[in-house]
Amino acid sequence: MTENGRISAVLTGLGTCLPARTVTNDDLAQRLDTSHEWIHSRTGIACRRVVDVGTGTAELAAAAGAAALESAGRSSCDLVLVATTTPDRACPATAPQVASAMGLTGVAAFDLSAVCSGFVYGLSVAAAMIGAGTCDSVLVIGAERYSAIVDPQDRSTAVIFGDGAGAVLLERSRRPEGRGVVLHTELGSDGTGDELITVRPGERYLRMEGREVYTRAVPTMVESARRVAEAVGWQPEDIDAFVGHQANLRILESVAKRLGLPPERVIANIEDVGNTAAASIPLALAWAADRGRLTPGDRVVLTAFGGGLTWGSAALIWPDVRPVHG
Prior knowledge:
Mean pLDDT: 95
CATH class: Alpha Beta
Strand content: 15-25%
Number of domains: 1
CATH architecture: 3-Layer(aba) Sandwich
Oligomer: single chain
């Protein structure tokens, strides 16, 4: 129980899974009208990970989920929630397969679709279910195989997206000093922008209106981050780390600047993995934790924006957690 008597959700485990195969900008330049300099200057991306043929989203998700459980010193949970835009099949959901692959047959499992905002949406749902007493522990996994839906000949999307998975375990609060506590979340959507990021009926590949997405993403992420910070009584100077969805380095820098945050408080690993949609925030958290960029007690704001249009933010206190990589 927290000091005000409410049950809280606490982040106790963090895991990742990245494909072994790296595709560099120079690799893409061999088949596209582009160059490393063109891609890097516009996106901040130098390379991305891509799965081998035959590897599905469920396999990535299960590896990241198992790693998060190991990080928490746990072997099971009450619920497996998989946030993904790229399920292996339209039906059934991916999460039950992921749970079974982890040896968790019988637990609750479902998918959540909010595109690049999926992880923050999942975090919010998980925290609410723990707070309501529905679950004692929830595994939230963001997993994507964008190589399955990106047109390899479309320069506007092929250079941006990568594959990967990241996961966290949330548990009912049993820890002192509030470390790991998810303090507040806020979510939003605007269906009038549903055609900006889409896979249209009868089509295989993702289409994105990049310029318009950028125009909408920056102010929306700024306002969402401000709202969640204000809800927990934080001013910009109180935020130790800002972890935005890793869509584009320009977006991250613009959002941070408008929030009044110095560059050293911005977590960005997009250069090494590209845009991994729902997996990007947990992958960035693990990257930062491995490098000492996040320390126990840090005040952290997460913010995402994605297709739908959807967006969301979360405020939490960073725990004493060691990421495990699957």
